[in-house]
Specification:
The structure is a single chain. Strands 2, 3, 4, 29, 30, 32, 33 and 34 form an eight-stranded antiparallel sheet that branches. By secondary structure, the chain is mostly beta strands. 7% of the residues lie in helices and 39% in strands. It folds into two domains: 129 residues, Sandwich (Jelly Rolls); 311 residues, Tachylectin-2, Chain A, CATH 2.115.10.20. Keywords: Signal. It comes from Gimesia algae. This is Glycosyl hydrolase family 32 N-terminal domain-containing protein.
Length: 472
């Protein structure tokens, strides 16, 4: 066989083997969002689009504020944790030890995430700096700089440890050695609580060593991962001279696996916080709202959006800013923009998250990003997948002139009988949960567990998410 024919023959064999070994995604009945290209097989005149959230007006009384904030949702309502100081206007340049000695963790509550109260907790003696008495933790050196709680959803967790938290810093090399000798090593310490208000150390020693952090001076968030069945922590670390993100896991919240650097930074990019958390409507997808730090522009900051699916590296589908500093000087001040931990549903069709100063932003449920097509039409074809369920639900929006048609195909791209574009009832409007129907109805149970592809033909429309429901 001539050399060129041999090459062509080998290419054809490899191509056929590749097609034969195509990975079939099993999405079960999970909600899948278009924040990455996990489902995306082919786009024709369509694109993944990042949507801009809406800043909501300020309310009176003033909202709680402070760096490294966390907002949890529990049977008490919304719980807001943020940093305060016993000496107003205190700064580390006035003395590193006294600065961190004076840090405290403050607490606010709300029934709607809009109007907040500062409850008098009576945990610590009243002091003029905090007349409302809303201090949940103080006298914990370094820990209050970035104390970050979460509600532990691990099955079987003790009620006395329903809430957990990490907090702490690492000493910089060859600095504050006398302080370290008196105070003990840095690192991330673990705390537990039955109600998110009364806290105690899980143990006296740090659970994540200071050598990992360089220097943990950020918000280091942990959570129980339903999809990975382990505790996960994303924390701040210097990586090749840039502020970056690392990750570690644990089965007991005491012993943690060796760190893995996430390599999320683009060239010459500082990521000041990780702010990585499971998305509450699709917890197998973690959302991250890191702060991008521009050291040479007056330490200006903005907020990015990234995602990851468990142990995989972050997806940087969208490299542009998700939230810009805004008009005016306040947003362009030194480190003026940090996203809080916590994305929560605050209305039938909206979810909220918070920034420094208690600013609240809203977007539609699942509405971080979408597959977007113009009025002249575009197409999305998913990768081959299997599902479990008997109806297809989509989260979508169209213009008055737009529409969406959905076709179910075999893995070769052939329309399946009864589920072709011609059979689909045109979809238009704006719904968080719309069931797709064809002439024969919405029942797709005959295809459950079988490899299929989904084809969406769209005009002036956004597709945010899809999910197969189990009605029976």
């Amino acid at each position: 066989m001539k050399p060129i024919l041999s090459v062509l023959f080998l290419f054809c064999v490899l191509t056929m083997n590749s097609l034969a070994e195509e990975t079939i995604l099993d999405i079960g009945s999970r909600r899948e969002l278009f924040v990455d290209r996990f489902l995306t097989g082919a786009l024709d005149n369509a694109e993944l689009k990042l949507h801009t959230p809406q800043l909501m007006p300020a309310v009176t009384p003033a909202r709680p504020h402070g760096h490294y904030a966390t907002v949890l949702k529990s049977d008490r309502g919304y719980q807001f944790y943020y940093r305060g100081d016993t000496k107003p206007g205190n700064h580390w340049k006035k003395g590193w030890e006294q600065y961190h000695e004076g840090e405290v963790t403050l607490y606010a509550e709300s029934s709607d995430a809009i109007h907040w109260t500062l409850p008098h907790l009576g945990i610590y003696p009243d002091r003029p700096t905090f007349p409302q008495g809303n201090v949940v933790l103080m006298n914990e050196f370094l820990v209050n700089h970035n104390f970050t709680p979460f509600i532990d959803t691990r099955p079987g967790v003790s009620e006395s440890e329903k809430y957990k938290a990490l907090g702490g810093l690492a000493y910089q090399p060859n600095q504050h050695l006398e302080v370290k000798q008196r105070r003990g090593p840095g690192g991330l310490k673990a705390f537990v609580s039955p109600d998110g208000i009364h806290w105690k150390p899980l143990q006296e020693e740090p659970v994540i060593p200071e050598e990992w952090g360089k220097y943990f001076d950020s918000q280091n968030y942990a959570f129980w991962s339903e999809s990975e069945q382990t505790y996960v922590c994303y924390f701040r670390r210097f990586i090749k001279g840039y502020r970056g993100i690392a990750r570690t896991t644990s089965q007991d919240f005491l012993h943690w696996t060796p760190l893995v650097e996430m390599h999320a930074n683009l060239p010459n990019e500082h990521l000041y916080t990780a702010c990585t958390q499971p998305y509450f409507r699709a917890p197998h997808i973690y959302f991250a709202l890191p702060t991008r730090f521009m050291a040479k522009r007056g330490a200006a900051t903005d907020i990015l959006f990234m995602s990851t699916r468990g142990s995989a590296q972050f997806d940087r589908e969208f490299t542009q800013s998700y939230i810009r500093p805004g008009i005016g000087q306040d947003g362009w001040a030194n480190r003026a923009n940090y996203a809080a931990i916590g994305i929560h549903q605050t209305g039938p069709a909206e979810m909220s998250f918070f920034l420094t100063g208690g600013r609240r932003y809203v977007t539609r449920l699942d509405g971080i990003a979408s597959v977007n097509a113009p009025l002249d039409g575009g197409t999305l074809v998913t990768k081959s997948l299997t599902f479990a369920g008997d109806e297809l639900e989509i989260n979508y929006s169209t213009s008055a002139a737009g529409q969406i048609l959905v076709e179910l195909q075999d893995t070769s791209g052939n329309p399946l009988p009864g589920f072709s574009l011609a059979d689909c009832e045109p979809i238009f409007g704006d719904h968080i949960a719309r069931i797709v129907k064809w002439k024969q109805g919405s029942d797709v149970s005959s295809l459950s567990g079988k490899p299929v592809r989904l084809r969406f033909v769209m005009q002036d429309a956004d597709l945010y998410a899809l999910k197969f429901n189990q009605r029976k």
